Here is the input.
Amino acid sequence: MYAESETAWCGCAGCGSVAELPAEETAGVDVPCPDCTKPMNEMWSWDTAA
Ligand SMILES: [Zn+2]
Here is the structure.
């Protein structure tokens, strides 16, 4: 069963890698980049991105 949930796009400031993660897992948590282990920053692709 596919349950639609909020998705957060996280971008790495270190290597530029982007990952799509469940918002509930990223809320208030520093998600380490799988490539360079630096903390990833949450960014929301569907919002008015600058
Ligand atoms: Zn990285």
Remarks:
- The longest helix spans residues 23-26.
- The pocket of zinc ion is lined by residues 12, 14-15, 17, 33, 35-36, 38 (CB under 6 Å).
- The chain has one domain: 7-42.
